[in-house]
Amino acid sequence: MQDHEDGYNAAKSIGAGLGVYHKIGDTADDNVTFGETLKLTFSKAVTLSAVSLRSDGHDTTHFDKNATFLLNGVKLALAGNLNFSLQQFTGTEFTFAFDSSKRIGSSLYNGDQFYLGGVTVSAVPEPETWAMMVGGLGLLGFAARRRRSDVRLG
To answer: Hey, how many other C-beta atoms are within 10 angstroms of the C-beta on 32?
Structure first.
């Protein structure tokens, strides 16, 4: 996937996002549309907490009314910025896909293509991390209790 604009222009909000731009004069398409998917893969589990999407005009305001897309098979409203509740999307792979479930006559149609402008993820703590944190808090509690009893004796 690459941006079909000639480079990035912040003043015009040009650029599909994620720092992906093409060479001047290249006319390849950069959107996610019918039959296409975009997969993000992480080496460790993360929680996806926010997504920034761009419409076919490379902005966040020109989405067709009621247009949707699929994230890991879940249908979501196609809008500029989406914030998810924690733990809704946790894993190592996230697949963004064009949702072609609407019908116009006998044809499937969504009415909008989209670009991934950015994502916000946070690392998922591993079980060893939780055990170490609980142990550390226990030691702090023990030290505080011991300090209080030393003050009373003195």
So the answer is: 21
